[in-house]
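Standup notes
- DV: blocked on the single-chain target, sequence here:
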Amino acid sequence: MFLQTVLLYPLVLALLCGGAGLLVDRASGGVVPAMLLLTIGAAALIAVSQLTTYVAPLAPATPYVLVAVAVAGAIVGWDRARTLARAWRSSLWQVGIGPLAYALALAPVLLAGRASFSSYLALADSAVHMVGADFLIRHGHDFSHLDLDNSYGATIHNYYDESYPSGADTLFGGSSFSLGLPLIWTFQPFTAFMLATASGPAWMLVRRAGLGGAGTGARAWAAAATLTVILPALVYAYELIGSIKEIVALALILGMGALVVEHRRWLWGGARAAIPFALLVAAGVGALGVAFGAWALAAAVALVAVAARELFSDRRRVDLPRRGGALLVGGALVVLVGAWPTWTNVGGSVEVAQGIASTSNPGNLRSPLHPTQLFGVWLGGSYKILPTGLGLTLTSVLVALILLLALVGVGNVVRAGRYELALWSVLMLIVWLLVRASATTWADAKALMLTSPVLVLMAWAGIAALFAAGAGSLRVLGSVLALALLGGVVASDALQYNASNLAPTARFDELASIDSRFAGRGPTLFTDFDEYSLYLLRDMDVGGPNFVYPPPSLVGAAGGHGHPVQLDRIAPAKLQAYPLIVTRRDPTAVRPPAAYRLLWQGTYYQVWGRRPGVRPALEHIAVATPSAPLLTARPGLRGSVATRGLGRTAFARTHCVRTLEGALRSPTVRRRGNRVHLVAALARRLITVPIPRSHLHRPAGWTRAGQRILMTRPGSLRLAFRVPRAGLWQVWLQGDAMRPLQVAVDGRQLGSLGGQLGGNTLVANTFSPLTVKLAAGAHTLAIARSGANVAPGDGGAAVLAGVFLTPASPAGQPALVTAPVVRWRSLCRRPAQWVELLVGSRP
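- DV (later): unblocked, structure below
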């Protein structure tokens, strides 16, 4: 799967986009520059996939239509393709930039050596795009059969049935379906590929800025400049968090800029020549919504200015106005048809754009992004947080240097007569300033990211001016400044790469296997918090009480978005709508009601099914004391383990008796009389290993945040515990860990736990358990985190929230016991999680 997603899939994407680009080139009269073939081909495929998914019956055929377009392009453009193929030896720098950009953008996944993506724990919007891409290819714009009472249906309805931009999603879904690959593992290869397609137009802009003349050295500098233009710190950050719409839009915006600077190739070519530029606009509207019009307008204004200048300078060409009119009409027609799904509900698209621009919700941003992030360098591990110490100092120095170079670059471009490049760059900055003045944090951050490449481009124009100077000292200075700019961008990207959090491949593969096993048997209640389950369990009609769109009947089962789900807070009758419940394997979790039995258990999850014909309980009564383990694990306290267990059990028994006594006095129970029987879920045998609060018992640099420990540095934590009997025990850790943690008991290595992340910090993530054979008595558990290295995500999450032990035998699992009403006190003799009042057959 790994090689299929990171190598085969982008190769197929390149063939699809290349074929479509050749078709557009032929249709437009051969005006498409070679370096724009992939970008314009991608734009064409976005427009095609938007049209096929708009007509619902055609949606499943989208992958085949994309292939057909590419094949048609290969046939009609075969001669040009052969010409380009023969010239590859003289174009090594141009040809190599795209694959190198793809490798850098996908570096966390490539170097991890497993199918994954790096946006995990950063921005859950990528889960929505996976769900939307899958749905649109399977069903198109037919939303009539959605179950709006569950999270899956409500998510699709509130996004894609409400004019949310889907152009990037339809190309993503259609290309992934063409190979039958899971969208969750092709997501980041797709965004990395789309960012790589921006290298073509970026190369053209860099050349126009004055770099890349004859000679290997000049082309090497042009290649370096191209990479930094498409991979400045903020753009790389947005690629790592999976901002698919913005990454696709960036490639299209740079494509429009390249056509502006190459206007002589096509501007007066008539209606056909307008097709490439119009397709870029149409694809941008499909991918980003009507908000893309701001950047399209900037390019259009630059073209109008260029056209006016040429009209006044060459009045002998009386046919220019006629050709310009034909260009406008042809371009408008292509934009209308190519973005037809958006225009048919343009009011909804405007509403979405206004909502994004005016929302007070900053998303995953703690504070507005700093304007200096325009300059492409940010020497910190996160684009959301200001660098500190030496990183802040170096960032400030580099920002000042790049600003000076950009000012020199603009002057040099104007002085050299490249007015169209200068005008387009200034207009791009004006668009950002207007967005910043009129929009809120979230929209401003997007505009900042889309503008950053322009500032880096102008800085390279300044370096080009130094290279072009006759004095040798200025050329040396230019080389030094170029290395500083290149090093600053590369270092910024490397820090973010090292701090990225990769998605937990094994856990997600297990969820996908559950979907295959239980498809069509929903609706399904999902009690874990991980919004990627909306895609992974898409065939089970998932509802999560703590998702953005919870089932209306289960809103009270969680404290809000991202909070833990408490099954005890759901009335038994409301659970009747859910034949299945998927829970996380967690020794501290509450067992589902008695009406459900365990159908399947994996490493991370359990699937519970409703017993056929079982009525819902009359009442579900939580009787467990809050967070009370059966046994304490700290040795050295007064009294034996058995005595402490008895003391805690006595407290739990009293709590149970009082709770049940009140519940059994209800009129409902009295009316039912002897027909009522009780069933209780016994608590697991659980040993809680206390985590020391004092810094004296923790490694240096391991700080406490509430009940959690932040393992920010290398170190080893030693925890003492006791077990009451000999046998096999399972050790459970809770928290998040990208860099592997080494776990040992009494000096014996149990295993390594790494890449195990949960949905958020509000719900404790439970690691897969480690099994160990122990003798009765005291033991020592060691948890060690090694020193950092250059592995992907090695600087990512490292949190320890809890440590538990349970028997590895069935005794460690929750069990049900039953009793008639007259013997209700017997259910409180052993620690229980809950008691239910049932009428009818016993479970």
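- Follow-up: The radius of gyration is 31 Å.
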